[in-house]
Every structure is written in C-alpha cells, then in structure tokens.
Design goal:
Elements lengths: L3 E4 L2 E4 L11 E4 L2 E9 L2 E6 L5 H7 L11 E2 L13 H8 L13 E6 L2 E5 L6 H6 L2 H4 L5 E10 L4 E7 L5 E2 L7 E2 L4 E5 L4 E2 L3
Antiparallel strand pairs: 1-2, 3-4, 3-14, 4-5, 5-13, 6-12, 7-8, 9-10, 10-11
Length: 197
C-alpha cells in the first residue's frame, strides 16, 4: 500500500518515498518551487518564478506597483531595511493567507550585519542568491533580494541588491524601483509533491 498523506483533500506522497534532493523542482500549495536547502526533514524553497500579475494585484496597493505589476521595495527613499519593507509586510500579512500557516516554519535570517528578521515568507538574501546555480537564479525577469546595498549620499537614495534577467546580481537599485517578488519559505518536506517526472 502506498504511503500517502492527505491534506485538505489533496494527496501527497510522504517524503521518504520521494528522496528529494537539493535543487529539485517540487510542487507545494499550487506553486512550483526549487529546493534550495535541506535540513533534516525541513526544506527551504524558492518559488520557481516571480509572483504573477494577478497575485500581485491582489496583494499590493496600486501605489506600490508599476505597470508590469512589479513591486517597489519601499516608498521611503532613504529606507532599505528589510524589516521595514512593504514587500516583507505584504508577504507575511497577506500572501501568508494563501498557505496553511501550521505547515510553515519561521525562518530567522541574518539580512544585514547584526540585523535579523523572523519571517514565514521572505526573499532570498544576496548571499543565498549568489550561491545558487545560474539556471535556478535565472528567471528572465528582474527580482529583488532582501539585502540592503548601501546609501547614496549624493542622491539621498537607499539601495537594495537585485537579480538581473540573466541571473547576475547587482548591488544597487534604489528602493522605489519596481522588480519581481520571488518568495522563499521553509516547511516540512512531507507536504511536498514531486513533479520531476
């Protein structure tokens, strides 16, 4: 008899039947994700693509979005702190409602020297992004990391690291620019279903 887990009427194979590996593409909660870290029976997942326009429209107020439905990091041009960003707030207060919160683990993230955040949903750090294989980092879209990159005293603008469509990382784009949002979550691997085949 197959070892099947049923959650909200959806059948999932138990993780011991799947033998998930780093960088496998998996399905969870209707989205496709890459496994970017495995820690015992917990996995950290990066969404395969940025959030789509319909989702972005439903999550963000219009003032935070551009014509392509990409999001600003913040409206305060001098603030590049992930803890204060509109993206963090939106992911952890609105996007979280699309998940069963009990399946997610809180992630403690060192995002800027001695600064830490505790999030159910976050973005990649710049360090995480640079360690990923190029084919996983590349989405043919611009998207934010959560890592601040500095403050331009001449223009009075705060910057954040971001990823180019080619997968290259760049250290400066001011917080009022608009880029894609690629969520990161951590959960027990038993809630995943394989889409490798």
């Amino acid at each position: 008899m197959e070892n099947i887990l049923v959650i909200n009427g959806i059948k999932y194979k138990k993780v011991e039947d799947e033998n998930f590996k780093l960088y496998d593409l998996v399905k969870y909660n209707g989205y496709e994700w890459y496994i970017i870290k495995i820690d015992n029976d917990n996995v950290t997942l990066l969404m395969k693509d940025k959030l789509g326009s319909d989702t972005m429209k439903s999550l963000f107020d219009e003032e935070y979005l551009d014509a392509d439905y990409d999001a600003k990091f913040n409206l305060d041009v001098k603030n590049n702190d992930w803890a204060d960003s509109i993206i963090r707030q939106t992911l952890n207060e609105k996007f979280i409602n699309k998940f069963n919160k009990s399946e997610l683990n809180i992630m403690k993230t060192n995002y800027d020297e001695d600064k830490y955040s505790n999030d159910y949903i976050r973005l990649l750090t710049m360090r995480e992004a640079e360690k990923l294989p190029e084919e996983i980092r590349t989405t043919n879209e611009y998207y934010w990391t959560l890592s601040p990159s500095g403050f331009n005293s001449y223009s009075s603008l705060a910057g954040v690291w971001f990823v180019l469509p080619s997968g290259s990382l760049l250290p400066w784009r001011d917080v009022t620019n608009s880029f894609g949002v690629r969520p990161v979550i951590n959960l027990k691997a038993e809630y995943l279903t394989s889409i490798q085949n």
